[in-house]
Design brief:
The complex is a heterotrimer of chains A (about 260), B (about 400) and C (about 300). Chain A has about 260 residues and is mainly alpha-helical. Chain A has helices at about 10-30, 50-55, 55-90, 95-105, 110-120, 130-150, 155-165, 170-195, 200-205, 215-225, 230-250. Chain A is globular, with a radius of gyration of 22 Å. Chain C has helices spanning about 10-35, 60-70, 70-105, 105-120, 125-135, 140-150, 165-185, 190-200, 205-235, 235-240, 250-260, 265-290, 300-305. Classes of the chains: A mainly alpha (about 260), B alpha/beta (about 400), C mainly alpha (about 300). The interface between A and C is large, with 113 and 104 residues.
């Protein structure tokens, strides 16, 4: 389904929605060039905050950690979430439905404290690994729910038709089922990545004495030093993530191409 | 007709095997990374959860894990320490005493030095989180200013020495108040008396901290801020609820920024935040100054302290660090950076004039007696206060 | 049910890895906190030891009793429900046209539009909210514009910031992609032939939407609504930052218990009740959003399995 005629009201409504989404972003990016310690009124143009950012080892290390964790966590949770989505659409096992919806409902501070206590009980090192494992725990749900929605009411006869035409099961899966659910998987993966890269509360509790992520850095900065440097690092993360996704799309064209 | 079940099962099996192997490999990769980290940290001296204290080399070398408020130490100071002791300082941050306490209560370890405020120190001492400071190493201990030499939560400095302090005061935008014909505040009535405060309706913020708000309300009502009477708390809660309609928000994080931007005209906040806000406002070429005033009824003194955790991986280096930060020059670095008060005598020689002369940051001797350090609340009163706070914020 | 028991072993294989993961890293830690809701608070934070001095477990229902004894908690829950419901409804209204647009776009544009929807959310949450504080602040253009129109009408100075308006606005902003993406994933697979058929039969645009598109999109609507409502119900950061002096939600109260009040058991009690209420409401909604075209309907399967 593509390239259908789009009525005017849909264009207008979407434009308004995009405007809404991008208004704060424009402010963020713009103010990263603001020649003022204050993040409130425009004074003048400067790139000095980016200069300061590149000298700030701690901030850069935190940004790198966030990116790394987000990539691993979204990959793992996409795989696990897709499987869960399948199982959910089949309706079995019943308990999976509860286990998938409950993490979204649980307040983050409860999960953070619970996971920390759990890791301590297991005598586990607190660090990047503990953070990533925690992120996967809540990201799986988002992917599962979207994949399930995609599968709901899906026409089984397409798959059966392929098999009737002589396709082996893996082939049928790869050329019929997977393309059919791919938009759901992609949507889920994007959400998982977004959730991981921006998580604060659970990360705060499950990070150890040595690991830091970008949200941890920024949240602790806002009181005293919310200089445009945080805008700069946010803009930088944005650019980096965009590069990452476009590069991935170049390398594995099937990832984003939904219409085979 | 070919029966459908078998291929469906095999397809599902094939997919799940593929998926499991991908997941398995990712987790394997993660564990490999963790193992490498552990190797690195075993050599570097950082700790794992539950590990016992490592054998730190004598008075130098190794890694110090500092758990501190953000931007609460000058990078120059850290570099100086690292060079002097041939060590590495790893910093992680928190922005609230309670966050730090909750994390420690859940069992997190790996930190050497933490910087809690006075009543949090009390909680940590009573919980048994801390190890005694090694006074043999603390040669600078005589450098503590007399007012800070005998703090109620640890008079003998068994577990804690002062790090820096700030006073909770009223800050205001002088030009905006003039335009609104609002006389410059001199006491807490400007915040808590609706007849006065509502003249600036929607332009006032207060700290989002029950400790600070209740204490300020007690000062306004003429009650001892460290009272443990439930009735006193109810009275204060009523006062706060009445005044609340004049305030814009409870804000501890961005109020100095809002003031520097000119959106908020008066706030209950920390003296160092107002100092920074004023500096930012001048840098942004605003046409006003942010002025702090010491309320006449009294104010709370928030003293942050250095403590060493019982589970510290490197206690020798930790004690060395504590002593290092008690040196005047190192203590002064922070005052110059953020406008906090220094608790060490020789620090005053190194502090810039504009910080030293700020009366809210370095209050005159005769006013110091009207300031109080907040004490740890007994659990029942804490619960009562928490219930009242919920109602206030409803 | 006439269909044979098909592929149940395969189904279990697919379900096993996520099931195992969630049991290990969600159910077990959560069980710790469910237990905590019956324990006694530690004197200086945390939890008191599970076994008292006499060796008996130190358990109590006090937390639950306290919750149901005071009406302020009910008020907080209801307000949170209201805010979350409003957020979900607004996200649906704002997100549906956008999702439709993306679903109808050609493949090339679709990828780009999807990315553009999620892109703003790869900047830090706090920074984005602070940007809204600048936009909605008293010296911002939006505030000045509103007051320009409000002043002649005699309405007092309108403050956009630190108000329920700001809370809902930012809540919608923060959750919008989580409505758009699931909706899009569902809308994308709608067979255009169905809509064309309806048009050929004389149905107008609204009728086509009401009888074809909307019913088919219900699973997507449900998924998007769940991924907005449930997190919004328990959120704390947004009302904390932009809510002003009254506008607390349940999430704030829970956070307060773990931090300032040092009453972990009561925090756990609140969290469990929050989770149960959210899941119950979701369950009710799931019933309402059953897909109309049930490809997995057992009767249909039976026919497909046995038909020619």
């Amino acid at each position: 389904m593509g390239g259908r005629r789009v009525p005017a009201w849909m264009w207008i409504a979407s434009a308004i929605a995009f405007l809404f989404l991008y208004l704060p972003l424009v402010v963020v990016v713009l103010f990263s060039f603001n020649d003022s310690r204050l993040n409130a009124t425009w004074v003048g143009f400067t790139t000095s905050w980016y200069g300061k950012l590149f000298g700030d080892e701690r901030m850069l290390a935190a940004a790198w950690n966030s990116l790394l964790i987000a990539v691993v966590a979204s990959l793992a949770s996409t795989v696990l979430g897709t499987m869960a989505g399948f199982a959910l659409s089949r309706g079995r096992p019943r308990i999976l439905g509860f286990l998938v919806f409950a993490p979204i409902a649980m307040p983050e501070i409860l999960m953070g404290v619970a996971l920390l206590m759990f890791y301590v009980l297991l005598n586990m090192t607190l660090g990047l690994v503990s953070i990533t494992l925690s992120h996967i725990a809540f990201c799986v749900s988002y992917v599962a729910i979207v994949v399930r929605a995609r599968l709901a009411g899906m026409d089984e006869s397409l798959v059966e038709a392929a098999r009737d035409c002589g396709a082996s099961p893996p082939l049928a899966f790869r050329h019929v089922t997977l393309p059919l659910i791919l938009p759901g998987i992609v949507a889920g993966a994007l959400m998982a990545f977004t959730l991981s890269i921006d998580d604060f509360v659970i990360t705060f509790f499950t990070a150890g004495a040595t690991a830091s992520t970008l949200p941890l850095q920024i949240y602790s900065m806002v009181k005293v030093a919310a200089t445009p440097e945080v805008n700069a690092v946010s803009t930088l993360m944005l650019a980096l993530t965009l590069l990452l996704i476009t590069a991935a799309a170049r390398v594995a064209p099937g990832i984003l191409r939904i219409n085979q | 007709m070919k029966p459908a079940p078998k291929p469906a099962r095999r397809a599902a099996a094939g997919m799940s095997i593929a998926a499991m192997s991908i997941t398995g490999m990712s987790i394997l990769a993660l564990l490999l990374v963790a193992a490498c980290q552990k190797q690195e940290s075993a050599q570097g001296g950082a700790a794992t959860a539950g590990a016992s204290a490592q054998n730190a080399p004598a008075a130098g070398g190794g890694t110090l894990n500092l758990y501190n408020w953000n931007d609460y130490i000058d990078d120059q100071t850290v570099k100086r320490f690292e060079q002097q002791f041939n060590a590495k300082v790893v910093q992680t941050f928190y922005s609230d005493n309670d966050e730090m306490l909750a994390k420690l209560a859940a069992g997190a370890t790996g930190y050497d030095v933490v910087v809690p405020t006075g009543n949090a120190v009390e909680a940590m001492i009573r919980r048994g989180d801390l190890q005694p400071l090694d006074h043999a190493v603390l040669s600078n201990i005589g450098n503590i200013r007399p007012q800070f030499a005998s703090l109620p939560y640890d008079p003998q400095h068994q577990y804690a020495v002062p790090y820096a302090y700030t006073v909770t005061v009223i800050g205001y935008n002088d030009a905006a108040l003039r335009k609104a014909s609002f006389p410059p505040p001199t006491g807490w009535e400007a915040i808590f008396d609706p007849a006065i405060a509502c003249k600036l309706k929607g332009r006032i913020t207060v700290l989002d901290s029950p400790d600070e708000i209740f204490a300020a309300a007690f000062y306004y009502l003429g009650i001892d801020p460290n009272t443990t009477s439930a009735d006193d708390y109810k009275k204060a809660a009523a006062t706060i609820t009445k005044a609340k309609s004049c305030w814009a928000a409870f804000n501890s994080a961005s109020y100095s920024k809002e003031m520097a931007a000119g959106n908020i005209w008066m706030a209950l906040g920390y003296s160092n935040d107002f100092f920074l806000g004023n500096r930012d406002a001048q840098a942004a070429k605003q046409d006003f100054h942010i002025v702090s005033v010491l309320p006449q009824q009294g104010a709370t003194l928030a003293v942050d302290n250095m403590v060493i955790l019982k589970s510290a991986p490197n206690p020798k280096l930790a004690n060395a660090f504590v002593n290092f930060m008690m040196d005047g020059r190192n203590s002064a670095d922070l005052s110059n950076l953020i406008g906090s008060g220094a608790a060490y005598k020789t620090a005053l020689d190194f502090i810039k004039p504009e910080v030293k002369s700020n009366q809210a940051v370095f209050p005159p001797e005769d006013r110091m007696s009207s300031f109080h350090v907040l004490r740890l609340l007994p659990p029942e009163i804490r619960q009562e206060r928490s219930r009242l706070w919920t109602e206030i914020k409803l | 049910m006439g269909a044979p028991n098909r592929g149940s072993r395969g189904e279990w294989l697919v379900a096993l890895p996520p099931l195992a993961y969630l049991v290990l890293l969600f159910a077990l830690p959560s069980a710790l906190m469910v237990l905590a809701s019956f324990r006694v608070a530690g004197e200086f934070g945390g939890l008191a030891p599970l076994l008292g001095a006499d060796g008996h477990p130190n358990l109590t229902f006090e937390g639950y009793a306290r919750l149901f004894a005071s009406p302020i908690y009910l008020e907080l829950f209801l307000r949170s429900l209201l805010y979350a419901a409003a957020t979900t409804a607004l996200c649906l209204v704002a997100g549906y046209p956008l999702a439709m647009l993306i679903a109808r776009s050609s493949a090339r544009w679709r990828d780009l539009l999807l990315l553009l929807v999620i892109l703003p959310f790869w900047t830090n949450f706090l920074i984005r909210v602070y940007a809204w504080m600048i936009i909605l602040g008293p010296s911002g253009w939006m505030s000045r514009l509103v007051n320009f129109f409000a002043a002649p009408l005699g309405l007092g100075p309108v403050t956009l910031m630190f108000s329920p308006f700001a809370v809902i606005l930012v809540l919608v902003y923060v959750h919008l992609p989580f409505m758009v993406l699931p909706l899009y994933a569902n809308l994308e697979k709608h067979d255009p032939a169905l809509i064309d058929a309806a048009q050929d039969l004389g149905a107008g645009a609204w009728a086509r939407f009401r009888h074809v598109t909307w019913p088919l999109s219900l699973p997507g609507v449900f998924a998007g609504s769940a991924l907005v409502f449930i997190p919004a119900f328990g959120i704390f950061a947004v009302p904390d930052l932009v809510g002003g002096t009254s506008g607390n939600m349940v999430g704030n109260l829970i956070r307060q218990q773990f931090l300032e009040a040092r009453d972990w058991p009561f925090g756990s009690v609140l969290s469990i009740v929050l989770t149960v209420v959210a899941l119950a409401l979701t369950g009710l909604a799931a019933v309402a959003a059953r897909p109309r075209r049930a490809g997995l309907d057992p009767a249909a399967r039976a026919v497909a399995g046995q038909g020619a």
